[in-house]
């Protein structure tokens, strides 16, 4: 079956849409504004729609010739596929950037913006005030309780090791710790 036979079978309206790349270029020119509106609706951005339309033109320019049943539908499908390609590329880029962010910073934000993981000035000031209050409260503990607290909580020794260091019984260490904790709770609640 040759080209003329195909035209007779399909009818005269098919002639412009059956031709290969040259015919598609003509259809592109004919439907350009429709395609632009279609792409603007798909992308949400007229400038991106223009870019996709230009990419479509370049694809048509490099296409080999051959019969196409419905050229208009073919153009719309090509345009839609270009939009999908761009979306997939955006998603791949986002995954790459998120992976890099997790590797470099230790976390990936839910939004596209990086949040400063450091403390702000107010948090630093509050933390310093708390440390100063705790240091003052520990310094004001009775001597036995202060020594037991320092050795156990700060130096990390067990009650038995603190007892050996201070030369007192294990129950004596426990009593000193109870006094220290009671005093610190009271001092920090004020």
CATH fold category name of the largest domain: Rna Polymerase Sigma Factor, Chain: A
**Overall pLDDT, averaged?**
81
Relative helix content: over 70%
SSE run: HHHHHHHHH
Shape: rod-shaped
Q: Could you walk me through the main structural features you see in this protein, from its secondary elements to its overall organization?
A:
This protein has two domains: 3-105, Orthogonal Bundle (Rna Polymerase Sigma Factor, Chain: A); 121-189, Winged helix-like DNA-binding domain superfamily/Winged helix DNA-binding domain (Arc Repressor Mutant, subunit A, Orthogonal Bundle), CATH 1.10.10. Mean pLDDT is 81; it is low at 1-19. It has helices spanning 3-10, 15-18, 21-43, 46-62, 71-105, 121-139, 143-154, 159-166, 170-189. The protein is built from nine helices and no strands. Helix 6 (121-139) crosses helix 9 (170-189). It is mainly alpha-helical. The longest helix is centred in the middle third of the chain and has 35 residues, at 71-105.
């Amino acid at each position: 079956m040759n080209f003329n036979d195909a035209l007779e079978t399909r009818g005269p309206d098919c002639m412009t849409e059956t031709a290969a790349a040259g015919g598609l270029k003509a259809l592109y020119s004919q439907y350009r504004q429709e395609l632009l509106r279609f792409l603007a609706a798909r992308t949400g951005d007229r400038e991106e729609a223009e870019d996709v339309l230009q990419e479509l033109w370049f694809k048509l320019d490099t296409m080999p010739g051959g019969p196409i049943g419905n050229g208009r539908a073919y153009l719309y499908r090509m345009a839609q596929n270009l939009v999908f390609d761009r979306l997939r590329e955006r998603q791949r880029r986002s995954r790459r950037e998120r992976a890099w962010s997790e590797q470099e910073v230790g976390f990936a934000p839910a939004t596209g913006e990086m949040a400063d993981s450091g403390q702000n000035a107010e948090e630093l000031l509050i933390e310093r005030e708390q440390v100063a209050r705790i240091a003052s409260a520990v310094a004001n503990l009775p001597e036995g309780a202060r020594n037991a607290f320092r050795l156990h909580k700060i130096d990390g020794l067990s009650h038995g090791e603190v007892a050996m260091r201070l030369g007192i019984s294990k129950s004596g260490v426990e009593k000193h710790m109870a006094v220290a904790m009671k005093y610190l709770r009271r001092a920090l609640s004020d």
